[in-house]
Design brief:
alpha/beta, seven-stranded mixed β-sheet, two-stranded antiparallel sheet, 40% helix, globular
Length: 253
């Protein structure tokens, strides 16, 4: 077994498909199959179960996957330390924009690399690589190589265009929600929408900046960070502030 085999095995588990893993890594599927067979021969057991839907790890396969993530994360950390490089930051787009515009104590230049991911990608990415810091709306309690440093709050509100007239009919513009199923703003928007039995149409958008622009142009309303009202042509249409907690993690030394 070599480190490349572990990388291949991680890709198989994360994509749920030998074909998708091959495409992600740029290998022929026959090479992926051969390396998986080699791993199974070395461990004297089946590591994945195959079906029409793809592959699922066996009990031992799950243990190997977790061990592989720890090994590769540790090696990345050692390489970074040996090179004298600063640590990396993993963060979502919303929180990066918030911290850069509202937190003078935040110094992005102190990191070697800033990796921006969707909320749904934060936990898998934090497993795959070791980061100096992770800032996200989700918790990383299941990962023992990070420790929680603080829990903070980002204040949000339902925003509309400054030019949108008061009392605009409900059906005229949609409620815009992020396409990312794990987005904290999306989850709260859907919860409020269901609680109030609102008849406003929902529209999914695959970009935070596009959502902000559409709201600014009067083409929708959305739950967004409140501070945007001081930077863009937006106004609050919800009376009470909505506080969304986010967490700051640091790597375990």
């Amino acid at each position: 077994m070599n480190l490349n085999d572990l990388e291949i095995f991680e890709a198989i588990i994360e994509t749920g498909s030998l074909n998708k893993a091959a495409k992600a890594l740029g290998y022929a599927q026959s090479n992926i199959s051969a390396r998986l067979k080699s791993l199974e021969h070395e461990f004297h057991t089946t590591l994945v179960e195959r079906s029409a839907k793809g592959v699922e790890p066996t009990k031992i396969g799950k243990r190997l996957y977790r061990a592989s993530l720890r090994i590769t994360a540790e090696l990345d950390d050692v390489k970074r330390e040996a090179a004298g490089a600063p640590g990396d930051l993993l963060i979502t787009e919303t929180l990066l924009h918030y911290m850069m515009t509202n937190m003078p104590s935040f110094h992005p230049e102190s990191y070697g690399t800033i990796v921006v991911r969707r909320q749904s990608e934060i936990v898998p990415e934090a497993r795959r690589h070791q980061y100096k810091s992770v800032v996200a709306f989700v918790d990383l309690d299941e990962l023992d190589n990070y420790r929680l440093m603080s829990t903070n709050v980002l204040e949000a509100a339902y925003l509309a265009s400054e030019d949108m007239v008061e009392g605009i009919p409900v059906g005229r513009v949609p409620l815009l929600i992020n396409h990312d199923k794990e987005c904290a703003f999306r989850k709260r928007s859907l919860r409020d929408h269901m609680a109030t039995r609102n008849s406003r149409r929902l529209m999914e958008v695959d970009s935070l900046e596009t959502i902000v622009t559409m709201v600014e142009q009067g083409k929708g309303i959305a739950l967004l960070p409140s501070y945007l009202t001081t930077q863009r042509k937006l106004r609050k249409i919800s009376a009470e502030p909505i506080r969304l907690p986010y967490r700051v993690y640091s790597e375990v030394e």
